[in-house]
């Protein structure tokens, strides 16, 4: 007796049971089932922008208390993030290598500034 025989029988039984459950289920019972949605969540369209009635006399709308705070907070955080990004320290490896090379040249006593020789200058 092999080990695969009981497993195969179990798998066949599960498949047949699943088929029977799918065949016996009516469409109304499967369509009405919503997984933890607790019913329909649909707002009927009213034709109003953000649910506000249009003003007929042309007056401006009154701001709510949170709007000015939101605009100042959002704008200020964007300006702060841009400032931090612009003035961030240069941590690239090429900058570090240049500073390290200059420090080693100065420690050796050589000039860190490139001075072209007379032979390398372009003749006019």
Automatic annotation (TrEMBL):
GO terms for cellular component: mitochondrial inner membrane. Its main location: mitochondrion. The keyword Transmembrane applies. Signal peptide: none annotated. The chain crosses the membrane at residues 68-87. It comes from the Eukaryota. It is found in: Mitochondrion inner membrane. Keywords: Electron transport, Membrane, Mitochondrion, Mitochondrion inner membrane, Respiratory chain, Transit peptide, Transmembrane, Transmembrane helix, Transport. Residues 25-54 are annotated as: Disordered. It is a single-pass membrane protein. Accessory subunit of the mitochondrial membrane respiratory chain NADH dehydrogenase (Complex I), that is believed not to be involved in catalysis. Complex I functions in the transfer of electrons from NADH to the respiratory chain. The immediate electron acceptor for the enzyme is believed to be ubiquinone. Complex I is composed of 45 different subunits. Interacts with BCAP31. Belongs to the complex I NDUFB11 subunit family. This is NADH dehydrogenase [ubiquinone] 1 beta subcomplex subunit 11, mitochondrial. It comes from Serendipita vermifera MAFF 305830. The lineage of its organism: Eukaryota, Fungi, Dikarya, Basidiomycota, Agaricomycotina.
């Amino acid at each position: 007796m092999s080990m695969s025989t009981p497993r195969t029988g179990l798998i066949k039984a599960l498949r047949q049971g699943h088929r029977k459950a799918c065949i016996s289920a009516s469409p109304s019972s499967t369509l009405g089932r919503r997984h933890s949605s607790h019913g329909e969540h649909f707002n009927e369209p009213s034709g109003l922008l953000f649910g506000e009635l249009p003003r007929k006399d042309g007056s401006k709308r009154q701001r709510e208390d949170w709007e000015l705070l939101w605009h100042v907070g959002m704008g200020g955080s964007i300006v702060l993030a841009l400032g931090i990004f612009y003035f961030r320290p240069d941590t690239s490896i090429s900058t570090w290598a240049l500073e390290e090379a200059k420090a080693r040249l100065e420690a050796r006593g050589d000039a860190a500034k490139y001075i072209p020789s007379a032979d390398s200058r372009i003749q006019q």
